[in-house]
Amino acid sequence: MQSANVLLKKIVRSSVLPFAAQHGMKKDLFPLSRTLSLSPCLKQDNSRSPSEKLDLDAWKKVMKSGLQEEVSETVSERKELSALAAAREILEMWRLAGRSVPENISEEQLKTFMDCPSKSAKKKYLKYLHLKELHKKNDKRKMEEKRERRLETVSKTDETRSKSFVCLWANCMDKAYSWRVAQSMIFGQPLVFDMSYEKDMSVREVANTVRQIVLSESCNRRSLDPFHIHFCNFKDDSLYHKEFIKHYKEAWGKLLITVTDQCYTDVFPKDKLIYLTADSPKVMKTFDHDKIYIVGSMVDKSIKTGVSLARAKRLGLETAALPLEKYLLWNAGAKNLTLDQMMHILLTLKDTGDWKAALEFVPKRKHYGFVSKPVHELKKTLNLINTLKLGKRQEEVRKQFAKNYSRKLTQK
Fold first, then answer.
1. What are the Cα distances from residue 34, in Å, to 4, 9, 24, 38?
2. Which helix (H) or strand (E) segment is 402 a member of?
């Protein structure tokens, strides 16, 4: 019996005592525990006093008070949540009305807003939160702008470094190109541009000629083994001179070329001069490094045939034409090339001696491709091209062209 009482006391202390202490029942706790501890004895011994019986009414009151407090707490929590939701709706309405309301507000700030005593106090508090939020956004924006500026400065420094390296590299390469051209002026093979065609061209044609010569000079300057360029029959007050000054400006006097008003026959021996013209009956077979080639500085939109050939015959010079028909299946049209194309072809022939590599600079629109098949197969391709591109009317002209082409190949 004593062990049962001890066990019951422990249960009461662990369960009832903390609950009673929370509700202020420390004074009545001892009789309650005593009655609970003595209840087993009372069942067996009915001779004891009634004061020692179990007090169930007090126990029921305690339990009911605890349940009421729990229910009140849940009700208060629900009321608080509904009040928070109502406050958020009010804030959303004020935001739509255009008042200064923060976009993001925490629960603590919302409770503080609800605890404000008046409507003006609530407005001031919301304005304070709104300004605080704006300051945070401005600080964040400033930090992002500062980071972007820092990244821009880093990128600019990298660009300046790369540009400085590129400029240094370009300066070094420019010096190397200038050194090569200076060597070619002493040891290189001469190449003559005949500048005596000003009267045969219009002002626009002269401008186009000078533009092509400028491209030729830059191409020659960047080659591995450049020519020594000569401008012969060049007059100081000519249109050529004016156009060159427009292009080169102050660099005109620093060009590593030879400019003279004399004729090329007065500068070089005639037996070494070869005038390159598309009208020449003689076809150039190989590139001769001991000869001096002459290129006529002329761009004629109307294609004046025979002008350069007549000039070379009057001077008693040897002439030559590029073997375009031998290596290319030529299309209808003149075989005149631009001056920069001629410079590319001559430089490639000088370096490699390969006609196919040199004639790659001929525009693709002027020919159908390189000759790599027999003549009868070329006729078939020509007929196919006629039917697809040119039509049946010009088919007979293409057939005649193929016949002439085959005759020339058999004669050679």
1. 13, 9, 18, 6
2. helix 395-411
| Closest C-alpha among 283, 282, 270 to residue 314 | 270
Rounded to an integer, what distance in angstroms lies between the CA atom of residue 172 and that of residue 166?
10
What predicted TM-score, i.e. pTM, was given to this entire model?
Answer: 0.53
Sequence-distant (6+) residues with CB within 8 A of 109 are 129
Cβ atoms 320, 276 nearer than 8 A: yes
List domains and CATH numbers for the chain.
188-321+339-350 (3.40.1280.30)
Render pLDDT for 216-268 as a digit per residue (tens, 0 to 9): 999 999 898 999 999 999 998 889 999 999 999 888 888 899 999 999 999 99
Task: Give the list of residues 6+ apart from residue 21 with CB closer than 8 angstroms, or none.
Answer: none
Tens of pLDDT, residue by residue over 151-160, are: 888 777 766 6
User: Quick count: other Cβ atoms within 10 Å of Cβ 274?
Assistant: 20
Q: Give the CB-side neighbour count of residue 36, counting CA atoms within 13 A.
A: 21
| 220 touches 347 (CB < 8 A) | yes
**CB–CB of 259/231 below 8 Å?**
yes
Residues 6 or more apart in contact with residue 132 via CB below 8 angstroms: 102
In whole angstroms, what is the distance from residue 283 CA to residue 286 CA? 9
Cross-strand partners of 370: 328
Q: How many residues does the chain have?
A: 412
pLDDT bracket for residue 58 (50, 70, 90):
low
To the nearest 5 percent, what fractions of the chain are helix, strand and coil? 65, 10, 25
Q: In angstroms, what is the C-alpha Rg of the chain?
A: 53
Kindly tell me the burial class for residue 113, based on how many C-beta atoms sit within 10 Å of its own C-beta (0-12, 13-18, 19 or more): buried
